[in-house]
Amino acid sequence: MSGLRRFQLTSSSNNRPVDEFPSHPKQLSEVAKFNAPGIFFVRANVADLQFSLYKACPLKVNGAICRKKLDDEMCCRGCAHRANNPLQCLFLRVELQDCDEPEICQKATVFSSVAEGYLTMRVEHFANMVEKSPKELEALLQSKLGQTVTVKLNLKEKGGEFSSMDWIIVAILEEKENEADKEDGEIIEIDNTGKKRAKKN
């Protein structure tokens, strides 16, 4: 598969500020072996990523927007609300790779607000690029591959007879690639509005 389709998922959060990231996050292998619910800060490489755009429920439930995926008839799978003006949301599936043991990889989910910050664009702009500037968008996504990032992970149990973990990325810290910046320990912090700021280790 080539072109922009290489990054697109074919199958079918809350706006929170970026937390302070620890100076010594865990390796991916440590968290994968632990395999238990919790919040973890992990430093890893981005081995792959895929995206999907979907329509979501705009109804406010207990003061928060539902954001559950709508079916083909624009009906919410969570609250059964039929939406006339659905939200457009972006979903990323990022494959993280351990920095020291590249054979250890783990896929994690990134929902709209964090995905927008990571890609530094609103979902509407992203959707427009899918239609009108696929080559530029492909180049942007390609530039993310191989980058080293520190992510804040929320591991949740899926439940069921054979319980496994949902790996959800709730914040991303992106390291600069420039060698001089690496020596200074400078990294770029991206919040969920897409703003960047330099931060020292």
UniProtKB/TrEMBL annotation:
Residues 1-23, 179-201 are annotated as: Disordered. Residues 52-158 form the Replication factor A C-terminal domain. InterPro entries: NA-bd_OB-fold, Rep_factor-A_C. Residues 179-189 have a biased composition (Acidic residues). It holds the Pfam family Rep_fac-A_C. This is Replication factor A C-terminal domain-containing protein.
